[in-house]
Amino acid sequence: MKYWLAFWTVSLVTAGVSFAVITGIVTVKGYQDLRAMFRGLAKQRIDEHE
Amino acid sequence: MHFAAIDWLIVVGYLMLSVAVGLLGKKYIGNVSHYLVAGRELGLHVGIATLAATEIGTITFMYNGELGYKYGFAAFAAALISGLVMIVVGRTGLVVVRFRALKLMTVPEYFERKYSRGLRLFAGVLVALGGILNMGVFLKIEGEFLMIVSGIDTRYLIAVMTAILLLELLYTVVGGMVAVVITDFVQYVLLSVATILVSIYAIYHAGWDQIVAKVSTTMGSAGFNPIENPKFGLTFLIWQVLLWFSIHTCWQTTAMRVFSTKGPDTSKRVMTWTGFIYLGRGMLPMLWGAAALTLFGVGAVRNGVPLPVVNGQTLAPIDAMPAMLANILGPGIKGIVVAGMLAATMSVNSSYLLGWSAVISQDIILPIREQIGKKPLSSRSQIFVNRLANLFVGLFLMFWGLYYTPPGAVYLYLNITGTIYLAGTFICVIGGLYWKRANTAGGYLAMLMGAAGAIVPFFFLHWSENITGFAAFGLAALGLVLGSLRGKGFRQPRQAVNPALGEAE
């Protein structure tokens, strides 16, 4: 049982840290991606009308 | 009422912000590709945000919390498998790379590329039916969470959830995938903050050592070892691997994110990194469930676990986690957490509304129109049909979702309803992409046998979820092989998807 507990503890810490770190990165860089998406969509609409 | 004025202010402010940014999406909708796959303009980071937000809802927290309460740390195995399988899919590009390269908009669309229009229609019906029934339990359970944490009287459950659904419908119908992506981003940030806050509070209040001790005394080694746990075991673990491979590749709402990325390489990276988020998506709420067991698991023992007793009232295990939050979170924090959970609810529901309505419009209504000789619809008309389908799904959920109660553990109910079509779909997609002899006869047989393999054993023979899952995937594979080998000549010449159903690029 103690090996399983150790395994789940390591897994939980990995999961929690990954979740927090990726959230931080995605929050900052996702905003830039959104702006790029808007630019791309606007360009597609212009190209369609030409 | 558990909510203070500051909590209401945060929640109402969030709702207004969410709808406002969602409505921004409308101005970017020019054709059906913009509406359904955001013009395939998703970059890596926003791709991760929208995929994670789509698959992390209050329903996810609730069923994972229930698993943690009932099965302790052994439940972590399900979360670990879901995350690891997603990382494998991302690293190898299994299915997703080819799907993205094919420029699909829905999963059943692939069936017409590889098999036939008839099979696309058949798959579309099964996918829409299974998906909507799957989503059908969301509203009620999400409503329960909200009622318990905020303290709103249960008499208002239907009114509150209807109002939330209408808000989701508003921006999803108007702005399609673009609106969903924008709101998903905001919602992902908020739900993640809430997830981290609740995890800290749960461990602080219940105590790590106490959680371990409670699981140990209640369940013994079965609370830690998933193979030893009677509900899980080796068959469960193998079924979960199969199921998660099929979900991460063929689940319509997940696949729509793959279709929306800038290219195959971006889709692989989105899957890989979201896989790490999936570990937390499962394990953290399971930990909350185990913490709720520690704090409130003092009632009569049912199925080997004491029922939660909160403020003198005995609850169902699934309600233990939200009851814990109502008791341990202070003013302000509670508002942030509920806003986060609402964000999770709205991101899932809006994505699912769009996903299933896309299948109804693109894979059922439009092919039937063409089959009966009507002329192809313009891109603008297709958007209109999509919006109508969206409204239809929303209305169905409003009535079905608020009155139907799933039997047994919600996680397992969702798994089985998903398996009804996922088994056949996954086998057909894998066979179609990687086995040259797969043909239409095999495709039909796989879809039929996969659905029968899930429905008959579970609903009529009352077999366990594990065996049912095996039966569904096994029969679907058998169906594809037998049908393809015996149905030689049945395969129709490969044809391009009808241009009317494709995107204008």
Overview features:
heterodimer; A: rod-shaped; B: three-stranded antiparallel sheet; 75% helix; globular; disordered C terminus
Detailed description of the structure:
- The complex is a heterodimer of chains A (50) and B (505).
- With 50 residues, chain A is an all-alpha fold.
- Chain A has a domain at 21-50.
- Chain A is built from one helix and no strands.
- Chain A has one helix spanning 2-49.
- With 505 residues, chain B is an all-alpha fold.
- Chain B is built from 20 helices and three strands.
- Chain B has helices spanning 5-24, 32-37, 44-55, 58-71, 76-92, 96-101, 107-114, 117-135, 138-150, 157-206, 208-219, 233-250, 252-260, 264-296, 320-328, 333-371, 379-403, 410-434, 440-460, 465-486, and strands at 297-302, 305-310, 313-314.
- Chain B has a three-stranded antiparallel sheet.
- In chain B, helix 5 packs antiparallel against helix 14 (264-296) and helix 10 (157-206) crosses helix 16 (333-371).
- The longest helix of chain B has 50 residues, at 157-206.
- The radius of gyration of chain B is 22 Å and the shape is globular.
- The interface between A and B is large, with 32 and 48 residues.
Q: What is the structure about, briefly put?
A:
Chain A has about 50 residues and is mainly α. Chain A contains 1 helix and no strands. In chain B, α9 packs across α10 (about 155-205).
The rough form of chain B would be described as: globular
Total helical segments of chain B:
20
Largest interface: A-B, 32 and 48 residues
The structure class of chain B reads mainly alpha
Run of helices and strands of chain B: HHHHHHHHHHHHHHEEEHHHHHH
Q: What is the terminal-to-terminal distance of chain B? A: 53 Å
The residue fraction in helices of chain B comes out at over 70%
Shape of chain A: rod-shaped
Helix content of chain A: over 70%
User: How many DSSP E strands of chain A?
Assistant: 0
Detail the poorly predicted runs of chain B. Answer: 495-505
Question: Radius of gyration of chain B from the CA trace?
Answer: 22 Å
Strand order of the largest sheet of chain B: 1-2-3
Query: What oligomeric state best describes the polypeptide chains here?
Result: heterodimer
The count of DSSP E runs of length 2 or more, i.e. the number of strands of chain B, is 3
Give a quick account of the main beta sheet of chain B: strands, pairing sense, barrel closure: 3 strands, antiparallel
Unreliable spans of chain A are none
Q: Structural class from helices and strands of chain A?
A: mainly alpha
